[in-house]
Amino acid sequence: MVCRGVARDYPCRRPAGQPGLRTSRPPLGADRSGGAGHFAAGHLRADAGFRNPVPRHHHRRCGTGPTIRRPGQSPLYQWRTRPRCASGPCGGGQGCKTVTGEFELIARHFKRPARSAEVRIGIGDDAAALTPAPGATLLVTTDTLVVGRHFRPDVPADALGWKAAMVNLSDLAAMGGTPRWLTLALTLPEADDAWVAAFADGFRAAAEQVEAELVGGDITRGPLTIGVTALGETLDAPLTRGAAQAGDQLWLTGTTGQAAAAVAGLAAGVTPDASLLTRLDRPQARCAAGRAARGLAHAAIDVSDGVLADLDHLLKASRLGARLDADALRPTAAMQALADSLGEAPAPWIWTGGDDYELLVAVPPERAQTLASIWAEQGLAPLCIGELVDAPGLQWQGDAPTIDPVSSGFRHF
Ligand SMILES: Nc1ncnc2c1ncn2[C@@H]1O[C@H](COP(=O)(O)OP(=O)(O)O)[C@@H](O)[C@H]1O
Ligand SMILES: Cc1ncc(C[n+]2csc(CCOP(=O)(O)OP(=O)(O)O)c2C)c(N)n1
Ligand SMILES: [Mg+2]
Q1: Which residues of 256-285 are buried (b: 16+ CB within 10 A; e: fewer)?
Q2: Which 3 state secondary structure label does DSSP give 81?
Q3: Are strands 359-363 and 249-252 parallel, antiparallel or unpaired?
Q4: What is the distance in A from the centroid of ligand 3 to the CA of 185?
Q5: Which value does ipTM take for this structure?
Q6: From 3.40.190.10, 3.90.650.10, 1.10.10.10, 3.30.70.660, which CATH number describes the 249-407 domain?
Q7: Buried b (16+ CB within 10 A) or exposed e, 312-349
Q8: Quick check: CB of 151 below 6 Å from ligand 2?
Q9: Cβ–ligand 1 contact at 355 (below 6 Å)
Q10: Which residue is closest in CA terms to ligand 1's atom 3?
């Protein structure tokens, strides 16, 4: 039996029709652009920003329930169901959802029945036990998001959950892999139940979009930090950064710079257009595009640090240079309007801003149109930005964008 759709190339080892287990994975089809529609459709809570970490009234301790105090820590309050606390701040009308410990948070927001037989042991034991497809190569990647560094403190919790999953899935996409499993290491300044609920909703929505499953993690106290590990599979050779060839064309799955524009707008106190903010807060991993590129493209990388910075990784790994078309990447109308209002040029956002999560691939010219039409069928707007050459370094066709070389690309140190 062969599972159709997403994992077209995977033999299906699940017993047919076994109740409660997924017996096939529906086709991913087109990458759904931005994920915005999903959120706009109200599946996720948008009101659980982390702006005010002080517990809202129904999170405060009320009534006479037991208080647990651990050495050196503030009291932890037990979950109670209604009717609770007529005398408390919520007046008994809302039940008393009080702050809880990490085990309650895990049980309530993260632990779910396993979706597939390949998860032999999921959340709840010392480690997850997973069964990769026979003959599959396992892909493993980790990325961390730190408050103030990767995201603003008041970003809505559901968007943050979505993004934490998607930026990791993007690395699997760049390798041409099929996403399967995720683990989540969550460091929280406090156990805000409503915030964690919204975060978990966003994370789960992203995972479900690509048929991946949360199988484990960790919760600790500290400055808000989210570490995710994503595991995927491929039966064929994975796409890498290092197998590009001179003469290959460089193609992007879509335009870049919107997220960086949104960051610049927010830093200047301007509310960015929704088209920019959506790209920043609800990125879309190009998983289907990456799978399509496997077998057609020679090399790929996802654009997290900026087009030029990530192109540089690909060039170094493949020992090549590139000739870029300076006019290939244009600002969208919203980017240009924001740039004008800030008195800035949009080119640095486009070429070095980062946080884009488009794929950049090197594909031989004779296969480029095939790949571009598959991507277009997936709802993407692919762009050719140049070609690879033997001579190391960058050459520009047209006027090279004015970019400060010191700040070209997102770097931590
Ligand atoms: N602390 C670490 N220990 C081991 N490997 C690491 C560490 N940090 C990064 N790497 C590896 O270095 C490579 C580049 O990492 P990074 O620049 O973060 O890639 P990406 O932009 O795809 O997330 C990856 O293969 C990653 O697994
Ligand atoms: C508050 C804030 N500052 C900066 C950014 C921009 N930004 C955040 S993450 C990122 C790039 C990716 O981060 P990194 O940790 O380098 O991920 P990796 O390349 O390892 O995937 C960028 C450009 C942002 N989105 N929000
Ligand atoms: Mg990384």
Answers
A1: bbbbbbbbbbbeeeeebbebbbbbbbbbbb
A2: coil
A3: antiparallel
A4: 15
A5: 0.95
A6: 3.90.650.10
A7: bebbeebebebbbeeebbebbebbebbbeeeeeebbbb
A8: yes
A9: no
A10: 142
Q: How far apart are CA 214 and CA 203, in angstroms?
A: 9
CB of 242 closer than 6 angstroms to any ligand 1 atom? no
Instruction: Judge whether 404 is annotated as a binding position.
Output: no
- Along the 413 residues of the chain, how does pLDDT read in single tens digits? 333 333 333 333 333 333 333 433 433 233 333 333 332 222 223 333 333 333 333 333 333 334 334 444 433 333 333 333 333 333 333 444 555 799 999 999 999 998 899 999 999 999 999 999 999 999 999 999 999 999 999 999 999 999 999 999 999 999 999 999 999 999 999 999 999 999 999 999 999 999 999 999 999 999 999 999 999 999 999 999 999 999 999 999 999 999 999 999 999 999 999 999 999 999 999 999 999 999 999 999 999 999 999 999 999 999 999 999 999 999 999 999 999 999 999 999 999 999 999 999 999 999 999 999 999 999 999 999 999 999 999 999 999 998 876 667 888 88
Cα distance between residue 171 and residue 306, in whole Å = 14
Q: Which residues of the chain does CATH 3.90.650.10 include?
A: 249-407
Domain 114-234: give its CATH superfamily.
PurM-like, N-terminal domain (3.30.1330.10)
Beta bridge partners of 182: 214, 230
DSSP letter for 120, please. Answer: E
Q: How far is the CA of 251 from the centre of ligand 1 (A)?
A: 23
Ligand 2 atom, smallest distance to 260 CA: 6
Which residue CA neighbors atom 24 of ligand 1 most closely? Answer: 141
Q: Where in the chain is the domain with CATH 3.30.1330.10?
A: 114-234
The answer to whether 135 and 260 have CB atoms below 8 angstroms apart is no
The token duo for 262 is 């949104």
